[in-house]
Amino acid sequence: MKTSIQYQGFKTVAADAVVFAASEGVAPSIDNAAVSQWAADLYASGEFTGKAFEIAVLHQPAGLTAKRAVLVGIGKLEKLDSAMARKVGGAVVRTLKAKSIGSVAMVVDASLQKAELVQALAEGAVAGDFEPDEHKSKKDSKHLESFLLLAEGGSTELAEALRNGAVIGEAQNFARALVNEPGNLLTPLKLASRAREMAEAQGLGCDILDEDRMKQLGMGSLLCVSQGSAEPPALIVLSYKPANPMPGIHLGLVGKGVTFDTGGISIKPSENMEKMKYDMAGGAAVIGAMLAIAQLKPNVEVTAFVPTVENMPSSKAVRPGDIVTSMAGKTIEVLNTDAEGRLILIDAITYAKQMGVNRMVDAATLTGAISIALGAVNVGAFSNDEAWQSEVLGAAKAAGEKMWPMPMDEEYKDLLKSAFADMPNIGSRGAGSITAALFLKEWVEDTPWVHLDIAGTAWIDDGKAWLSKGPTGVGLRSFVALAQRLGS
Ligand code: BES
Ligand code: MN
Ligand code: ZN
Questions:
Q1: CA-CA distance, 487 to 391, in Å (whole number)?
Q2: Side-chain half-sphere of 250: how many Cα atoms within 13 Å?
Q3: From the CA of 258, how far away is ligand 2's center (Å)?
Q4: Fewer Cβ within 10 Å of end Cβ, the chain: N or C?
Q5: Cβ contact 168:198 at 8 Å
Q6: Ligand 3: distance of its center to the CA of 344 in Å?
């Protein structure tokens, strides 16, 4: 789908559909008698009220070149924010492509003529075009050919906003496509080569640490997870360094990249196990964020670290009770081989610190417990530094990703005790997402850090009006917004 902006009126645009935003309770005033009357009649009859994502279609509107006029509900005008604009963009694309419409032009009226709303519309429209049907011979749905925004008397600022939105939406779809790939097709080395291809095309630095290098570095924690799999592990490192970086800031993005999580010897029940292909969603969000960052070029140094492994049971697999030594030298008693995400993350975190990262965010499908706490609505955000946490949550809010601060009181640490090593890899009972975060914190130490547990939000089982079912790409937009804010 091509996205573009044009500074022209809607009357002469040659599109399959020209779309007008229509707010709740107030028929839009449209400078065309036929369309305006049609809209007024719809509101008067109550057939269309302007509630969010309602759609009405008029064929052959008199006086317009376009084949159809479309009203899309945007809800109450005073509640119109970028989160709503993003959803509206997605809903327009999803509803119209389902009707086999190819080209859509949406009118950016006075209420929408703000950079943040235009960016969000474009993000939503591009993300709305994604379908998780890569491997279906007969595709579920069609795709739009083009999505055009019509901003009469618009500015270069709006054009910039559109480009920002399209870049971010496309990066999000890139990440979602990776998450959607099954474990047999996207192994750790495949994920690494996809990241390398992207990095080379975008001019990012790329270093992929193989098993030997990780052994030399003493990454015993990461390597104990991959040892049960025939698929070799990797640590993907992508780096972005602008010409004039903000001095003193080196942002590190760390993403969990378990391409498939069976649980290992502490094997998972078979019901729903197929979904564990999305256990690399944090890694995909980080890699996708780097794709957007490479194009949007914020003035801040950013390095991504994605430890990637497959968690399998086998005669070579790590056993419950095994004791391993992490790169930082601390020993871990592996009490449950299904708590593997933290084991691979901590060696990546130690490596990130060694590479000079001084602000850190990680994203990981770390615990089922976060879905119990927050459902599929909010990402759990854990931190060791209040100022940094509010910086990250501020970026998330601006990017329209819901995140909620979670507690990390010292008292919870009593649940993390091993009789035989420095730390066990699971807590004794309760507060599973918190003990997982506290485990990571032992390796993060003093570096300002936020841990995002995205296990509940990285995948949706039911599609929304504005987004297909499947991978969401959550985290990516916040990372990009964070880099842009740090660089300005
Ligand atoms: N990848 C899972 C967490 C997960 C669960 C992600 C459901 C997405 C949906 C993680 O590796 C895991 O298995 N965590 C365990 C931890 C437990 C053994 C302490 C869990 O949540 O059960
Ligand atoms: Mn697991
Ligand atoms: Zn996992």
A1: 13
A2: 13
A3: 9
A4: C
A5: no
A6: 10
Conformation bin of residue 61: beta by default, left when phi > 0, alpha when psi is -120 to 50: beta
Tokens, residue 230: 């025939």
Residue 454 dihedral angles phi and psi, to the nearest 5°: -105, 20
What does each C-alpha distance from 84 to 91, 107, 250, 465 come to in angstroms?
A: 10, 16, 33, 12
Indicate if ligand 1 lies below 6 Å from the C-beta of 367: yes
Buried b (16+ CB within 10 A) or exposed e, 79-100: ebebbbbbbbbbbbbbbbbeee
- End-to-end CA distance of the chain, in Å? 31
Q: Which ligand is nearest to the CA of 273?
A: 1
Closest by CA to 255, choosing from 240, 234, 270, is 234
Residue of 330, 319, 321 lying closest to 423 (CA atoms): 330
Cα–Cα distance, 142 to 164 (Å, whole number): 25
Q: Map tokens 């305006």 to a residue.
A: 36
Is residue 58 within a helix (H) or strand (E), and if so which, with residue range? strand 55-59
Please report which ligand is nearest the Cα atom of 429: 1
> Does residue 460 register a pLDDT over 80?
yes
Query: What is the pTM for the complete model shown?
Result: 0.98
Q: How far apart are CA 338 and CA 345, in angstroms?
A: 14
Q: Residue 140: pLDDT above 90?
A: no
Ligand 1 atom closest to residue 266's alpha carbon, by position in its atom list: 18
What's the pLDDT score for residue 153?
84
pLDDT of residue 154: 79
Angle between helices 281-296 and 156-180 (to 10 degrees): 150
Q: How far apart are CA 438 and CA 478, in angstroms?
A: 23
The rounded distance, in Å, linking the Cα atoms of 10 and 71 is 13
Rounded average pLDDT over 259-265: 99
Q: Cβ atoms within 10 A of the Cβ of 216, count?
A: 9
- Domains in the chain, CATH or no CATH each: 2-153 (3.40.220.10), 170-486 (3.40.630.10)
User: Which runs of consecutive H residues, i.e. helices, occur in 312-431?
Assistant: 341-354, 369-374, 386-399
In 306-421, which ranges are continuous DSSP H helix?
A: 341-354, 369-374, 386-399
The pLDDT tens digits of the residues spanning 237-254 come to 999 999 999 999 999 999
Q: What is the arithmetic mean of pLDDT over 154-158?
A: 90
The alpha-helical segments, DSSP class H, found in 72-113 are: 82-98
Q: Are 450 and 392 in contact (CB under 8 A)?
A: yes
